């Protein structure tokens, strides 16, 4: 027989259940009406739009209809409605597009008072220039207005013509200095729009204009610096800037010429210690990448324990490449203070002890590292044949904290945009919201994102907030049926497929890289075309099912080409097979050494991450195997690829 309390609880659940169904049903109806009303929001006076405003009064995305209606009617007689909307949504993504269109409209009318009243920086340089110009026209304090100009001037590109008048008034008032001209010329020459250099050169005093020609030549062809006779030492500090810039580029193209020119330049100019260190660092990395005979000389010169992490890494890589274990220990012991307890430093110190016949110290280092959830921690555990430790500490957040964040208007808008698969708009809302939350509220938002299946935003939030021990939420079994099915179909380890998707996109279905890789597993269109034997559209690649099918099929293809070696296949997934084949040594090299000496930093870090993620996913899938036991003893050589 049920107790009274149990019966009471059952009645409460039964009473709430239909209410929940009604709420879901209403939301579905509102969602459908919202989609139908969007086309009418361009006609805000229409009856269909007006009726929808009543029915959608409590729908989270109603402001998006209102924004569209206002964008369609940007005019003075709508000022009150526009002003109200901009005030209500001032710190949301709904603000920017309408504010920019409204300000542009006011600028075209030369309505300076209204423009200044509504102006907020949206990142648009044309509007920034217009704002500065109107401030100069309206204010009695011209110095305050002039203070807006340097930020517009000091960029390495041409500015909008709206800036011309501002720059002229600023210049005529004596505000533009010779140093500012030089700063902008350097920005344009060193990575900016070099076509701006001739104009900026003409603004320099006549005796300095030759510097513009030297900058332009160095940008177009760094070997021009070898003709040091063209550097008259009239303005040595400025000439040295050009020499240093050119040498750091030249060393990648012509190392002997770069070294010779540096020696000659050192005789000609008095370089200070920071400038010498700058050249040494640039030369050291260029030499180390190609294993140049002079790499050790420059690495020793650059790695002076001053905290330059990149130089330390390349020095360690160089000595590992030659497996000089005493030198490895020496380099690690010279590590900058901030890196002494770094996982990689501790691991490679243990490896050097192992090879220097000091098993006691090797084991002590491995023991201390083996409890860390990290690539090097897993390697250390593998060396000891020890079970990896995931150190999982799930985050505990109260229902009240979750409810508080979940019921914020921006959170409701983000969730509804997510439901409509409008991922970009959803992320804009969510990212803007998180910038306004406390640390604890941010953690609650991360848990909510995970609960909603918005795994990429949960992963990013945990990382940004520094809470790294909630393993299940940081490494979710997202799209598990799709990944498991296709991994089985193509005979690849499902933990590996999860690891690749986690590293590539953090399970963001609409991920789109700068080089064109798309979807969950960041499949390149060319790769999909090769596998499918036909053109594959972007729409198909953004479909999770199809993307995972192509991604896992490609993993199988790479495994076949790399003699079932998951480390090489992982490297090839990131960098391509041809590069990986070029990186393979003729003689056997320990796997951990080979990974550490991959020339591309991106691929090097990628392989480490995917291997670590694979171990985590193995355990998440219920497999307790320590794959690093095999990896710790694996050898890599050029014989490991298919012809």
3D architecture notes:
The chain is an all-alpha fold and 643 residues long. Helices cover 66% and strands 1% of the residues. It contains 38 helices and two strands. A two-stranded antiparallel sheet has the order 1-2. Helix 16 packs antiparallel against helix 17 and helix 21 crosses helix 22. About 1% of the residues have low confidence.
List strands and helices in order, with pairings:
Layout: H1 4-37, H2 47-55, H3 62-71, H4 79-88, H5 93-108, H6 112-118, H7 125-138, H8 142-146, H9 149-153, H10 162-172, H11 178-189, H12 197-203, H13 210-220, H14 236-253, H15 255-268, H16 273-289, H17 295-302, H18 309-321, H19 325-333, H20 343-355, H21 359-369, H22 375-383, H23 399-406, H24 409-419, H25 423-434, H26 439-451, H27 455-465, H28 471-474, H29 480-489, H30 494-505, H31 525-532, H32 538-541, H33 544-561, H34 566-575, H35 577-583, E1 589-590, H36 591-596, H37 601-620, H38 627-631, E2 635-636
Antiparallel strand pairs: 1-2
Helix pairs in contact: 1-2, 3-5, 5-6, 6-7, 7-10, 11-12, 12-13, 13-14, 14-15, 14-16, 16-17, 16-18, 17-18, 18-19, 19-20, 20-21, 21-22, 23-26, 24-25, 26-27, 29-33, 30-37, 31-33, 33-34, 34-35, 34-37
From the structure above, extract its key features.
mainly alpha; 38 helices; flat; single chain; two-stranded antiparallel sheet; 643 residues
Number of helices: 38
| Mean pLDDT metric | 93
Report the count of strand segments: 2
Write down the overall geometry.
Answer: flat
Strand content range: under 5%
Q: Structural class given helices, strands, pairing?
A: mainly alpha
Side-by-side strand order of the widest sheet: 1-2
Question: Could you give a short account of the major beta sheet?
Answer: 2 strands, antiparallel
Rg of Cα set: 31 Å
Amino-to-carboxy terminus distance = 74 Å
- Low-pLDDT stretches are 9-17
Helix content: 55-70%
């Amino acid at each position: 027989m049920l107790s009274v309390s149990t019966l009471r609880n059952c009645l409460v659940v039964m009473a709430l259940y239909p209410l929940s169904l009604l709420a879901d049903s209403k939301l579905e109806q509102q969602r459908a009406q919202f989609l139908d009303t969007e086309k009418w929001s361009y006609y805000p006076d229409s009856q269909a739009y007006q009726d929808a405003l009543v029915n959608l009064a409590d729908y989270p995305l109603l402001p998006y209809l209102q924004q569209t209606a206002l964008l369609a009617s940007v005019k003075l007689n709508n000022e009150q409605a526009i002003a109200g909307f901009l005030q209500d949504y001032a710190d949301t993504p709904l603000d920017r597009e309408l504010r920019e269109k409204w300000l542009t409209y006011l600028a075209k009318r030369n309505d300076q008072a209204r423009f200044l009243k509504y102006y907020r920086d949206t990142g648009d340089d044309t509007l920034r220039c217009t704002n500065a110009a109107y401030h100069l026209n309206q204010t009695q304090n011209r110095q305050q207005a002039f203070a807006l100009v340097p930020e517009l001037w000091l960029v390495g590109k041409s500015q909008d013509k709206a800036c011309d008048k501002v720059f002229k008034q600023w210049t005529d008032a004596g505000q533009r200095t010779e140093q500012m001209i030089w700063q902008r010329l350097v920005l344009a020459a060193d990575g900016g729009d070099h076509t701006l250099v001739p104009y900026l050169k003409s603004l320099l005093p006549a005796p300095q204009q030759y510097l513009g020609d030297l900058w332009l030549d160095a940008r177009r062809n760094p070997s021009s610096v070898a003709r040091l006779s063209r550097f008259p030492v009239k303005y040595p500090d400025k000439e040295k800037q050009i020499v240093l810039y050119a040498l750091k580029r030249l060393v990648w193209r012509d190392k002997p010429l770069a070294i010779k020119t540096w020696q000659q330049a050192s005789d000609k100019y008095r370089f200070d210690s920071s400038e010498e260190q700058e050249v040494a660092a640039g030369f050291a990395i260029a030499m180390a990448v190609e294993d140049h005979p002079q790499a050790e000389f420059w690495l020793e010169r650059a790695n002076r324990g001053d905290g330059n992490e990149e130089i330390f890494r390349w020095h360690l890589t160089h000595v590992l490449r030659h497996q000089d274990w005493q030198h490895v220990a020496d380099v690690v012991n010279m590590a900058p203070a901030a890196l002494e307890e770094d996982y990689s430093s501790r691991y490679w110190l243990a490896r050097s002890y192992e090879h220097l016949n000091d098993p006691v110290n090797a084991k002590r280092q491995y023991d201390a590292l083996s409890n860390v959830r990290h690539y090097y921690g897993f390697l250390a555990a593998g060396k000891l044949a020890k079970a990896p430790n995931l150190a999982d500490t799930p985050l505990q957040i109260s229902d009240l904290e979750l409810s508080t964040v979940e019921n914020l208007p921006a959170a409701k808008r983000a969730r509804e945009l997510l439901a409509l698969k409008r991922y970009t708009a959803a992320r804009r809302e969510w990212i803007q919201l998180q910038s306004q939350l406390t640390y604890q509220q941010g953690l609650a938002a991360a848990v909510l994102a995970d609960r909603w299946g918005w795994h990429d935003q949960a992963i990013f939030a945990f990382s940004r907030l520094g809470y790294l021990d909630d393993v299940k939420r940081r490494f979710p079994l997202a799209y598990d049926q799709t990944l498991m099915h296709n991994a089985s179909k193509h005979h690849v380890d499902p933990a590996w497929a999860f690891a690749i998707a986690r590293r590539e996109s953090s399970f963001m279905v609409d991920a789109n890289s700068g080089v064109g890789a798309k979807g969950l597993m960041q499949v390149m269109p060319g790769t999909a075309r090769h596998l499918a034997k036909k053109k594959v559209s972007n729409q198909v690649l953004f479909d999770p099912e199809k993307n995972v099918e192509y991604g896992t099929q490609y993993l199988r293809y790479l495994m076949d080409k790399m003699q079932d070696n998951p480390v090489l296949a992982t490297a090839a997934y990131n960098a391509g097979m041809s590069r990986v084949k070029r990186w393979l040594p003729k003689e056997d090299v320990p796997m951990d050494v080979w990974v550490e000496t991959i020339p591309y930093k991106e691929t090097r870090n990628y392989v480490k991450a995917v291997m670590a993620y694979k171990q985590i996913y193995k355990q998440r899938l219920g497999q307790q195997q320590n794959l690093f036991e095999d990896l710790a003893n694996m050898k890599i050589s050029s014989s490991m690829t298919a012809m």
